[in-house]
Amino acid sequence: MEHHLDPRLLLAFAAALIAAKLLGELVERLGQPSVLGELLAGVALGPSVLGLVPLSDGMFLLAEIGVMLLLFEVGLETNLEELGRVGGPALVVALVGMVLPFVGGFLVTKLLGYPALAAVFVGAALMATSIGITARVLTELKMLATREGQIILGAAVADDILGLVVLAVVSRIADQGGVEIWAVGKATGLAIGFLAAALLLGIPVGRRLVKVVDRAAVRGVLVAASVALALLLAFVAARVGSAPIVGAFAAGLVLARTNRRHEIDTALKPIVDIFAPLFFVFVGAQVNVAFLNPAVAENRAALLLALLLSVVGFLGKMAAGWGAWGGVRRAFIGAGMVPRGEVGLIFASVGRATGALPERVFVALVLTVFATTFLAPPLLKILRPRRPASSSARSA
Amino acid sequence: MEHHLDPRLLLAFAAALIAAKLLGELVERLGQPSVLGELLAGVALGPSVLGLVPLSDGMFLLAEIGVMLLLFEVGLETNLEELGRVGGPALVVALVGMVLPFVGGFLVTKLLGYPALAAVFVGAALMATSIGITARVLTELKMLATREGQIILGAAVADDILGLVVLAVVSRIADQGGVEIWAVGKATGLAIGFLAAALLLGIPVGRRLVKVVDRAAVRGVLVAASVALALLLAFVAARVGSAPIVGAFAAGLVLARTNRRHEIDTALKPIVDIFAPLFFVFVGAQVNVAFLNPAVAENRAALLLALLLSVVGFLGKMAAGWGAWGGVRRAFIGAGMVPRGEVGLIFASVGRATGALPERVFVALVLTVFATTFLAPPLLKILRPRRPASSSARSA
């Protein structure tokens, strides 16, 4: 009862929605994916420019709900068999796209004279692709259901799962100076085991759920039960050390195999329309434009490091596209893996919290995450294959 | 970047949705409005029983978004002319329903030997009806568009607005021992002026907004723009000292007069289905069942006070129903005014924070708010007029 709603959060929510749609529309008319406009809206509304959207806990919560619902929707529009069919190339793309940026990031940081532990954190932070950005651009370009789209999606999920395992390992090294091999195995097993269990148990549970829901008399039970399943799997994913979005995505995959898929998807769309922009605005709001000014001496070292990290981060993921096979446009797949996001930022903040990352390296890492994120949407648009969908996948 | 999503909030969200729908369904099959089940789900999940739904800031934020969206939807389904046509009886019902519970609450508290300032807070806390509970039950009973429903809705909005003016006045008395008459006039003018301005300016703005939105190419602009308008008006309402829900309701009234009303309503329904239950669960979760045990000596004085306050609070609002005219079922209107909610709890917490309310009186006040809230849904169901809608209002 002692809670108080800060009215500024209502204003921030409204401003985020309006600016995201306005700039999204503008950017789309300029021929770019509208998510770029939403990211720019975030930069403009964030604390370093207009200060209308705070980086507060409340805003973060709404943004997280937004990205979970977005991944839930993407899962719902994904065919698990199609995804399984590209499992081989997706895994190779994921692994190449983790190893090359790690090695590149480590070497660049080490060669510039920073400590080895900092270099490990930087390398690790460059590994994971942002599923949110990638999925959103693929949906906008209507490429989600193509073979390329499925490989990107599968690889992005895989490197998010593996990236968080690496985070657990690297954090333990920072804390205790070393790590036991069984701990690495346990973390990996838990994260992969969760996804396998969620899909194996989830599919019969999802079908039963839909049948129970059919008998309900009160309003809105189907959408409430679906979202509840997404939240439950997101909770379990977080508990086993994986990302909540992986759980939400799994819930979507599971419910995509029920006969109520279209109904759930229809009900979900307006919810995603309201909350997903908050995620992209929140990502943009974290850009501190003050760090971009090269006239400030301290910024120059960070900007140089960021530039080099962006280059190795970009090249490493682009090269990963060549790990795919089966008549696909490899450059498009590589570009789809370029944006870094949530996991990269989590690495940066854990690295700073444990003292492993000097302030300057931290800033450079954050700038690198943003550079790759802002680069990917126009790049994907340019590299999009101009042909009918290459697989039998249904259009999204 | 240092934000961390507490996974327990995901579990709380999921548990709230599941329990609300399950108990809502059960209660509806027992012939009661399902909102009662959602409130009971909250009691069960709250800290005093299972402890799955915390009274945290995050949960509160989601609950507040839920009740704002609910009132936005109710506004969207309300015809402003119909509402204006019952303005006279609604105002009389609101005023009688504020004066009688105030006098009754004041006298009961004073006669039981508590200080005069505490008695003023108690009386004031019993004045405002919970729009959320009332609107939800009216929707469930399909009574929102009837003359009775419109009178209840108008009166509940009016006493919420006036109740928050009284809160400003009473808080100033508690702080400074007195209040200037111009401050009372200013607070009243601001709150009423906001609603008038929102409707007068809002209707042309809403129509223009819909036209602009029609030209958009990106997805989900109509629903995003509508929700943004609701949030903006909620923000302004809060800024002028009124309740955010009043602003959200006004936004609904405004958009109800556009030619896209049905589309907005359709898109809004699943969002309300997900978030509104969180409000009712959060209300229920605030019930501390430990206070209900009469075997504990300290509880008995609070329970006695709560019983007496519930009686005067109930009778005062029931009597207010007789302030209405025009061939309506007055007992139904009175029952619609019985549930106390947000504003009553705000009074209780401000009273405790300023030291005006002794702990025992605070507990009694909170119990009274809950007693009236839980009593209203079955009462409304019993008293519902069994005849076709008495006015020309469209069915909700």
Q: Please bin the fraction of helical residues of chain A.
A: over 70%
Structural class of chain A: mainly alpha
Separation of the first and last Cα atoms of chain A:
45 Å
Of all chain pairs, the largest interface belongs to: A-B, 62 and 62 residues
- Number of helices, where a helix is a run of at least 4 consecutive DSSP H or I residues of chain A: 16
**Strand residue content of chain A:** under 5%
Radius of gyration of chain A, in angstroms, nearest whole number: 20 Å
Question: What is the mean predicted local confidence, pLDDT of chain A?
Answer: 89
Number of E strands of chain A: 0
**Shape annotation of chain A:** globular
* Main sheet characteristics of chain A: none
Say what oligomer this is: homodimer
Low-confidence stretches of chain A: 389-396
Features:
homodimer, 396 residues, mainly alpha, globular
Descriptive overview:
2 copies of one chain form a homodimer. With 396 residues, chain A is an all-alpha fold. Chain A has 16 helices and no strands. In chain A, helix 7 (131-140) runs antiparallel to helix 8 and helix 9 (181-214) runs parallel beside helix 11 (244-255). Chain A is globular and about 65 Å long. Chain A starts with 6 loop residues before the first helix and ends in a 13-residue tail after the last helix. The first copy, chain A, has helices spanning 7-29, 34-45, 57-76, 80-85, 87-111, 116-125, 131-140, 147-176, 181-214, 221-239, 244-255, 261-285, 297-320, 330-337, 342-353, 359-383. At the A-B interface, helix 1, helix 3, helix 10, helix 12 and helix 15 of A face helix 1, helix 3, helix 10, helix 12 and helix 15 of B.
